[in-house]
Amino acid sequence: MESRILQLITALRASGVRVSLAESSEAFSAVDLMGIQDREHFRLSLRSTLIKDVRDLPVFDKLFPLFFGQGQPPMMGGNPMDDMTPEEAQTLANALRQFTDQLRQRMERLMNGEPLTKSELEALAQMVGLNQTDDLRYQNWMAQRMMRALAFPEVQEALRELMEQLQQMGMNKERVEQLRELVQQNLQGMQEQINQFAGQRIAENLSEQKPNENIDGLMNRPFNALSDADKKLLQREVKRLAAMLRTRIALRQKRAKSGQLDPKATIRANLKYQGVPMEIKYRDRVRKPKLVVICDISTSMRFCSELMLSFLFALQGQVRKTNAFAFIDHLEYISDEFTGSNADEAIASVLWHMPSGYYNTDLGWSLNDFNNEYMDTLNGQTTLIVVGDGRNNYNDPRLDIFSLMSRRAARTIWLNPEPPYLWHGDSDMPKYAALCSNVLKVSNLKELTEAVDQLLSG
Amino acid sequence: MTNSFASTDSVKSALSAQKYIASDEIATIVYLAQKLEKPLLTEGPAGVGKTELAKAIAGATGRELIRLQCYEGLDESKALYEWEYSKQLLYTQLLRDKLNDTLGKADSLAEAADRLANEEDIFFSDRFLLQRPLLRAILCDAPTVLLIDEIDRADAEFEAFLLEVLSDFQVSVPELGTLTAKYKPFVVLTSNNTRELSEALKRRCLYLFIDYPSLEEELAVVRLKVPELNPKLARQAVEFVQKLRKTDMRKSPSISETLDWANALVSLNAKNIDKETLEDTISVLLKHEADLQKAKRQIINPPPPPTSRPRPDDFGRFSGN
Question: What secondary structure, in 3-state letters, does B24-39 show?
Answer without folding.
Answer: HHHHHHHHHHHHHCCC
